[in-house]
Amino acid sequence: MAKRKRPKPAGSAARRPARPSQAGDGRFVLLYGVHATLAALANRDRQCRRLLLTAEVEGRLGDQLDILLDRRPHPLDTVVVERAELDRRLPPGAVHQGIALEAAPLAEPSLDALVRLLSGRESVILVALDQATDPQNIGAVLRSAAAFGASGVIVTERHAPAATGAMAKAAAGALELVPLLAVVNLARALRELKDQDYWCVGLDNAAERVLTGAALPKRLVLVLGAEGAGLRRLTRESCDLIVRIPVRAAIESLNVSTAAAVALYELSRRHEPAPPEPARTRTP
Hints:
This protein is of the alpha/beta class. It folds into 2 domains: 8-103, CATH 3.30.1330; 111-270, SPOUT methyltransferase, trefoil knot domain (Alpha/beta knot), CATH 3.40.1280. It is built from 10 helices and 12 strands. The radius of gyration is 22 Å and the shape is elongated.
């Protein structure tokens, strides 16, 4: 296995720091955090340009980085920097854990392409977010989607944040695993999915029916509204069914990422075979 070149300090001529505009110019963004960075390096479809890390992280993750970088289709620069340099490059308060990666955004699939890709599967769960604007919430939804087997997350083109570092950090690697796509008109996209035999199930804490008691098909879209506003009228009217997650009266509602996690867990249980009953232990 080829060895990774020894990282050089950021001030060396061979490893000049990137111009600040390049890290967020639309072609390259700065991903940060251990999970997000390692997942991006492992994704051969993700174009990566420069890895920035502290000496402490380089020493701790060196062998793992050697393997990932050796598998990359193209070489990239590795630069050892001070933690203060990462603090300067990233948004205030960003928890970078001593590592960041300059990478191009992932290619976004079209809705038609995703539907064709999933056409042969018997059970499919998609998630649709109606004007969700918080990148950390969307990242958390992506993480739950990866954990519970959802095959894609759909957002609205307007008001949806770009898939940059904050979203990737919250997704903890799931941004590389679950397709994220934006549509111009969510209600129209839901109707197109219904034409492909998907059921659209909206979540609303005021709904009469409860998610746990609803009989649902194996191909469905879980539709969640934005924080506070909930589902818009046309989005709601495009759903086949509106259900709620039962919560105690002391809590009015769950935020969108928590609601997505609970609902995806419940839906994933329906697609798993029932486990065998444990053997009973006889007491003497």
